[in-house]
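Example 3.
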Amino acid sequence: MKESDINVFIDSAKNYFKFQLQENVEVGIPYIKLPNSLTLEYTGIIGISGNHKGSVCITSPKSMLEKIAIEIFKEVDPGDDILQDIIGEMANVFSGNARKKLGSNFYISTPIVIKGKLDNIEFIKMKSKSYIIPINWKEFKFFILVGIE
Amino acid sequence: MKLLIVDDSMIMRNIIEKSLASLNLEVVGKASDGIEALELFKETKPDLVTMDITMPKMDGLTCVSEMLKLDDTIKIMIISALSDYDTAIEALQKGAKYFLAKPFSEEKILEEFNIFMEC
């Protein structure tokens, strides 16, 4: 994957917030993932196969998902299942939309959601660099991790 | 008219139902994968179906083919994050009548669904 292909995930995230949530986000400068990258409280993971191989992860604080659930999706007292659903769907849309640029041989899995902070998330056996895209929405910060070759 | 909603995301199923509420459709079922969708399809005999693609157990495009074997008059709208041209074409070739890419606003899905119902 070329470094410029990172933009496709940035655009997907912006479009998701703009069209699905009617919100704007501010995208920070992407950087190369270093060892010991933390995850936040909920992480949605999409496996990638086909012409590319690797994964795309979206990691978010619980409070952000709760705010999305309550204020945007109008869920009253959202439980864990709702929060996991939201981040899983975000990961699905961010990755699925990437096919528009990366092509139909960019296969995506159904999302896996992990609850709980990890001290580190590593894209093992990756020959190419992995990237982190920081994104700000209101008072929250979440991250897209792209590890694809 | 009877509507069956198929998406592995609970939030998406709720959004679709809420967005289309003004059309006074009867939502006869909501399924989270293709296998469940087929069972509900046989049970409820809907007139319209909205179908996600990337789902566990059975994906949406396979489910479309299976539904059309049971009822070749059924109208199916694909609603998917796989927003590339090739996927849309494949869905239509498999017999879906319409394709809407995620993400979408409530206004957008309502507008597109009205066109879909006329197909």
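Chain B touches chain A through 24 residues (CB under 8 Å). Residues 63 and 69 of chain B are 10 Å apart (CA to CA).
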